[in-house]
Amino acid sequence: CWGRDAAYITYAIDRAGMKEAARKFYRWTIKAQNSNGAWEQRHYLDGAIAPNWGLQIDETGSIIWGMWQHYCLNKDEEILQEFWPSIRLAAEFLVGFINEKTGLPSSSFDLWEERCGEHTYSAVAAWAGLNAAVQAAGKLGHYLEAETWQKVSDNIKSTIEKRLWNEKKQCFLRGIYPDKN
After folding, report:
1. Are 38 and 55 within 8 A, CB to CB?
2. With contact defined as beta carbons under 8 Å apart, do 59 and 110 qualify?
3. How far is 146 from 162, CA to CA, in rounded Å?
4. What three-state secondary structure class fits 42?
5. What is the pLDDT of residues 11-63, one digit of tens each?
């Protein structure tokens, strides 16, 4: 099980109205979570770590995002309370995984497990997870965590926009600005 892929699949399952199946997946992720808050690249279905090539930060970000999406779809505050210790631990991991020189999550393997570095997709997934943790913290009244994580989340987003995404350049490459050199 790749947590990232499973979080996307679980979101679809949840949208299809299968909330108990989604809930079971997130309960499984809580058991598979590392003591440092991260999730490994992949696991066997019994929760044991499967062979992997190293950390993929998007796994952690995607799972937190998925937990928050589960709450948003089902509005079950009891399940959010159940998820909270795991969300908090993962958010603290993400906050501690920032490269102070670049403002982005530190180097990890990319989505395709080919290169280790600071990647746009990985940074966005980490931002989405941290942003979801901010929302969960606020909903549950953990305002200090929400405020602290929001600052880090805002910085990641700003850095992504400055260093990893140039809208005009991207639009030009797609032909939206054909008259520009």
Report:
1. yes
2. no
3. 24
4. coil
5. 999 999 999 999 999 999 999 999 999 999 999 988 889 998 889 999 999 99
Phi/psi of residue 152, nearest 5 degrees: -65, -45
Distances in Å between the Cα of 83 and the Cα atoms of 67, 130, 132 are 7, 14, 12
- Count H helices and E strands in the chain, helices first: 7, 2
- State both tokens at 69: 């999406």
* Cross-strand bridge partners of residue 44: none
Give how far Cα 1 sits from Cα of 25, 45, 70, 102, 175, Å: 10, 6, 19, 31, 39
Residues whose CB falls within 8 Å of the CB of residue 18, separated by 6 or more in sequence, listed in order: none
Q: Full-prediction pTM beyond 0.85?
A: yes
Report which of 94, 85, 86, 72 is spatially closest to residue 148, judged by C-alpha positions: 94
pLDDT in tens, 96-148: 999 999 999 999 988 888 889 898 999 999 999 999 999 999 999 999 999 99
Q: What does the alpha-carbon distance between residue 65 and residue 29 come to, in Å, rounded to a whole number?
A: 13
Find out whether 154 and 98 touch, Cβ atoms under 8 Å: no
